[in-house]
Amino acid sequence: MIDKEILSFLSAIDDELARHAAEGETLDLYLLGRSALVLGHGVRLMTKDVDVVYIHGSPLLDRAVETFGRGTAEAARYGFYLEAVSSGLPPLPIGYQTRCRTIPGPWRVLSPALPEIHDLAATKLSRFHARDREDLRILCDTGELTVDRLREVVDLAFAFSADEDEDSKRKAAYTNLEMVVDYLEGRQRGL
After folding, report:
1. pLDDT tens column, 82-134
2. Distance (Å, rounded) from C-alpha 44 to C-alpha 46?
3. Above 90 in pLDDT, residue 73?
């Protein structure tokens, strides 16, 4: 099962970092993308990358990506690669860290966390490729997304960006948000 395989991959990262971390040193690992959808909602989707939020100046994260990133022997061994992405690339809503829920486990160094469902949905709106739309449909179908809260977190994701006329990602996200709202409210059959 893919969720167990992702957890095994994270456990291997934890083991590697435990060999190199200073006493008491930890790494908050905020998961994004499909791996977050799989682990957070039990969805059976394939993914090869385990996206995490890039933390500037984190030697532990740098080591993890160096050892488990795309093209590494460990990535080939586990069938996944670790990819650190900027919090601005899928714009993350302000305060997302406080809304994340920790993945329980016998972690020694890692503290892996999953985004709140609305925060995860907001990260899918700018790009809106076929897989993003599929992921959004799955999130909508959980019955946990609400229109008002989704609008709030999208506003939080773009709180510091230029207005829609100057920022194409922002404009795309708000346009795509309206399609998601139409789907949630039953006015549209698919995404």
Report:
1. 999 987 777 899 999 999 999 999 999 999 999 999 999 999 999 999 999 99
2. 7
3. yes
Mean pLDDT score, 65-88: 94
pLDDT tens, position by position, 136-155 = 999 999 999 999 999 999 99
Closest to 180 (Cα-Cα) out of 149, 137, 119: 137
Secondary structure in 3-state letters for the chain = CHHHHHHHHHHHHHHHHHCCCCCCCCEEEEECHHHHHHHHHCCCCCCCEEEEECCCCCHHHHHHHHHHCCCCHHHHHHCCEEEEECCCCCCCCCCHHHHCEECCCCCCCEEEEECCHHHHHHCCCCCCCHHHHHHHHHHHHCCCCCHHHHHHHHHHHCCCCCCCCCCHHHHHHHHHHHHHHHHHCCCCCCC
Query: Where do the structural domains in the chain lie, given as residue ranges?
Result: 2-115, 121-184
74 has pLDDT over 90: yes
Query: How many Å apart are CA 105 and CA 87, to the nearest integer?
Result: 25
∠ CA 124-96-25 to the nearest 5 degrees?
Answer: 120
